[in-house]
């Protein structure tokens, strides 16, 4: 059987065979798209003044963030913070090369140096949003009080309310930048980052496929178990804080 007819192989423009390799594990993909849904639901419920849905989406965001932090230490090798957080020199060097040409960037079997820090920024911003919501007290949502308002002073609650209403604009900006980056990679760098995050696989030239097959994938069952525990922890905290 020739290279052109082997399963899971295609041909690049320079006739170099490509292989389909695993890139993102299921827990990472589940986190990514669940977070998208939760943030979109938070925005929609805010516009429609639906406090119960807004609160549930906020709790979901908090559970997802807790999961991603844990998975950043015990998950698949390319999902760990130690794998994709680079120093400023490497980030600056990568950004300088980014605009050059339309050649695909296949150097990193996971997040590139700039993308890795974007992940951290997004995690921090949504964590701040979810946590501040726990302490928010306002009358915008029919005199809604977050589950932890009773445990803090009115000044602290007011500060959390300000952070909650201000930080959301930073999230919108970060999300917009994230989407624009994905479009840039698709149109200019010829990298379908969105497709890879949906399917979990990526096509790469055979010559560099080994760097991708060296990814150590953690058990998806472990990931789901951690996510369930995080969800139960957040749910339990809310129930206890509200007095059962």
TrEMBL record:
Single GO biological process annotation from the record: respiratory electron transport chain
Location of the protein in the cell: Cell membrane
GO molecular function: electron transfer activity; heme binding
SUPFAM superfamilies, sorted: Transmembrane di-heme cytochromes
Gene Ontology CC, one term: plasma membrane
Keyword set includes Ribosomal protein: no
Keyword Secreted in annotation: no
UniProt keyword annotations, A-Z: Cell membrane, Membrane, Transmembrane, Transmembrane helix
Major localization listed first in the record, in broad terms: membrane
Cytochrome b561 bacterial/Ni-hydrogenase domain span: 24-200
Membrane spanning stretches: 26-44, 56-74, 114-135, 170-188, 221-241
PANTHER family linked: BLL0597 PROTEIN, NI/FE-HYDROGENASE 1 B-TYPE CYTOCHROME SUBUNIT
Protein name as catalogued: Cytochrome B6
């Amino acid at each position: 059987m020739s290279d052109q007819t082997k399963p899971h192989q295609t041909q690049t423009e320079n006739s170099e065979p490509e292989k389909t390799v695993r890139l993102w594990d299921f827990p990472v993909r589940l986190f990514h798209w669940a977070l998208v849904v939760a943030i979109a639901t938070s925005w929609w419920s805010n516009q429609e003044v639906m406090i119960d849905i807004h609160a549930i989406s906020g709790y979901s965001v908090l559970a997802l963030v807790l999961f991603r932090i844990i998975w950043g230490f015990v998950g698949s090798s390319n999902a760990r913070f130690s794998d994709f957080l680079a120093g400023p020199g490497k980030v600056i060097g990568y950004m300088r090369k980014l605009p050059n040409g339309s050649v695909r960037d296949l150097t990193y079997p996971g997040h590139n140096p700039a993308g890795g820090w974007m992940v951290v920024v997004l995690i921090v911003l949504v964590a701040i949003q979810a946590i501040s919501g726990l302490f928010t007290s306002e009358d915008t949502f029919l005199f809604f009080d977050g589950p932890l308002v009773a445990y803090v002073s009115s000044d602290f609650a007011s500060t959390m309310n300000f952070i909650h209403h201000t930080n959301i604009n930073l999230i919108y900006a970060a999300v917009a930048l994230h989407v624009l980056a994905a479009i840039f990679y698709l149109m200019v760098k010829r990298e379908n980052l969105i497709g890879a995050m949906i399917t979990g696989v990526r096509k790469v030239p055979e010559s560099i496929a080994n760097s991708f097959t060296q990814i150590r994938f953690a058990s998806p069952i472990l990931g789901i178990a951690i996510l369930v525990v995080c969800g139960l922890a957040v749910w339990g905290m809310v129930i206890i804080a509200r007095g059962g």
